[in-house]
Amino acid sequence: MNGGIVMEIRTRFAPSPTGYLHVGGARTALFSFLYARRHGGKFILRIEDTDLERSEKIFEDQLLDDLKWLGLNWDEGPDTDGSYGPYRQSDRLEVYRQFANKLVEEGKAYEVYAEPDDIGKLREEILAKSQAPHYTREMLEKLSTEKIDEYKMSGKKPAIYFSMPRKDWILNDLVKGNVNFTEDSTGDFAIMRSSGLPTYNFAVVVDDALMKITHVIRGDDHLSNTVKQMALYESFGFPLPAFAHLSTILGPDRTRLSKRHGSTSVGEYRKRGFLPEALVNYLALLGWSHPEQKEMMSIEEMEKLFDFDRVSKNPAVYDEKKLTWMNGRYIREVSDERLYELSKPFIVPKMFSEEEYVSNKKWIIQSIKSLKTELEELSQLPEKMEIFFVKPEVDHDLFVNVEKAGVVQAYKVLIDLYESIEDWNVEKITEATKKAVKDSKIKASDFYHPLRKILTGKESGPDLVEFIFLIGRENTIARLRKFLEG
User: Average pLDDT over the chain, rounded to whole?
Assistant: First the structure.
């Protein structure tokens, strides 16, 4: 609160469209989204696309699509009206030039006429003296005197460097607590390249300040950048936002999460058939905990509870087994109708045409429902559903065991009973199956376990009677006869 006015909380997620949305980035977006929602604020999406060589439209489109799929809808962004746009950095280049020139005019920044190679050589010279690779105005202006005439003659533009104030800095981070940066923690640094493009540390400060961002939430790999940004905020007279640096996500081997640990992008999990609510739920637990230690929770519940007092300073360990388990739980809880829609990309056109998927909707819903307890990823569906269409090979060892147990005759009785059913439904199938066991006077265990193997080819699976109903009378009898005929 400032002067009796309640400040609107404004958070942002600012990805670079140079690759797909990583789970670490998704967690940052989620925490930013939850904090804004928790406090009735705004969540802003900004695209940081000034790396022209690596930025691609396909990545930007996928980023937006993945965030929407996760349910992290923004209030302002490149495709949404807002008062502080444009929300794509490549559309803001003139803004950066104006602010950089302002610093030069005020003597807080200066032009440097030097090639990147020259700066690189200077860095090597400093390192050779066992000094920190920090630049001073004196060093860089010395380089400039050698190149200034050449630059002006050829029309080349200089880079612009910020004159870093020499003092200690203290950051009161919402996650890390107090972080001290000493006077020698950094030297002068570039804010505009000779190409006319801003550097990250400069653009992010200008954008966050002009977009009224109150809370900067990001990974702790950005922590070392913060001292430069604090200095820029001070130089412009901008109010400093609150910072929250989230702990690193590690793989099970306690090294930084990477491709070698398996899927790491949101898009990969979508392709594997993970539900967005499962992924969001799991990402929330990577560094944050529910006040009552609940593990399964909706995004709406998180919105009401999220705050930084329950965000851990310690690195979070990414456990895909737990995520997969959680996804299986969500699959089992989802409605039949939604599961039917979610399953479509995984079995059309692999198993059904579009037309067949619609005309066989009731059967498909029942068959998927019968497999729910076995599913951890929807991409498993084609393999799991094979049991409905592929007749198992005859297991001769199983036949010998069945014959020894005296169950062969019971299966012949079962065939007769199934053939006599007028209305093929679960209730009638159950009655006929129980009658076959009772009339044959054999142990139920000797009868049912081999029957599952005969009909499905598996030791376990969906409810047996439900399965028999779904494959139909003809298929059931054909599979039994095939087995009995050896």
Answer: 94
